[in-house]
Amino acid sequence: MSFSFGLIGYPIQHSLSPWIHEQFLKRTNVTGTYDIYEIHPEADFAAEMDNLKQQQLDGFNITAPYKEKIIPYLDEMDAYAEKIGAVNTVLCKDGQWIGYNTDGIGYVRALESKYPYITATKDKSILILGAGGATKGIYQALIENDYDNITIANRTIEKAQTLTQHHATSKAITREEAENNSIEYDIIINTSSVGMKPNIHEVIISLKQLKKDVIVSDIVYQPLMTQLLHDAKELGANIHFGHTMLLYQAQYAYEIWTDLHPNMDQLDDALQQVLEG
Ligand code: ATR
User: Fold this and answer.
1) Taking the complete model, does pTM exceed 0.90, yes or no?
2) By the 8 A CB rule, do 109 and 252 touch?
3) Using one digit for the tens of pLDDT, what is the confidence trace for 176-224?
4) Which H or E element spans position 270?
5) Which of 9, 64, 228, 233 has the greatest number of C-beta atoms within 10 Å?
């Protein structure tokens, strides 16, 4: 038996997903392929989906800008993906396409693997920075993993309020409030693209004071050492790199497709080396 996986998105020529899934195939001792199906934004998406159906894939990933656009083409959707309203993984089974979202859950897996002691107690106070596309999945995954002390800070506070309104224990604040009260948090997570190349000197908030043993985490992985993580390290924080989310969302997708569980030993360092060329 040989697996056949794919990725749709645009642009995806430099995607790291083929590399990651090839590692998983090796680590689980099975053969398979992971191919790129780049779909231009001006292409006929319905025709592209017809074409993809002919490929007899076991599963595929969806990245920007198609995580919502794929939804009408699915036969079923997992409850968590439904809640997020975005799909990054499709399982093709008996001619049916079943949609999942592994991004937020992958993020939580990555964080808990790197800092296992945080899973011992879920009462950690968490500050999420940003309220864009990636935030919703991470926030929802944290809630579903019983973290219930979450604050979201965003430039446009209304977007943070929209996310937190259904959870009495969550709150929305301005970036200024986050800067002034940053010492209160056990975990601070940048879920925005602020700091990504080429704007490598930008930070979503400037960190002044941090709690002892705080974890500062960034989902940006280009560069790995963002300005936010650099500043956090200077202040003595534990830091958590963005490429680990990429690894663990892929691990969860691979499990959905194969029912196999690739071990993650040393993959973090290996991917870091790939990223750093
Ligand atoms: P998305 O994930 O929605 O595609 P993103 O650029 O990754 O887009 O993230 C958007 C988030 O980053 C938003 O929370 C945005 O703040 P607004 O809601 O106020 O727009 C935040 N963001 C982007 N650029 C920013 C900047 N220069 N300063 C502060 N926040 C910024």
Assistant:
1) yes
2) yes
3) 999 999 999 999 999 999 999 999 999 999 999 999 999 999 999 999 9
4) helix 267-275
5) 228
CA–centroid distance, 193 to ligand 1, in Å, is 6
CA distance 277 to 275: 5
* 105-241 CATH, one of 3.90.1150.10, 3.40.50.720, 2.40.10.240, 3.40.50.12160: 3.40.50.720
- Fold matches, 2-101+244-275 and 105-241: yes
pLDDT tens per residue across span 78-95: 999 999 999 999 999 999
Q: Is 114 an annotated catalytic residue?
A: no
* pLDDT category of residue 119 using cuts at 50, 70 and 90: confident
Quick one: pLDDT at residue 141?
97
Residue 120 has a pLDDT of: 81
CA 156 to ligand 1 center in whole angstroms? 9
Within 10 angstroms of residue 199's Cβ, the number of other Cβ atoms is: 12
Q: Could you identify the atom of ligand 1 that is nearest to the CA of residue 64? A: 4
Q: How far apart are CA 153 and CA 160, in angstroms?
A: 6
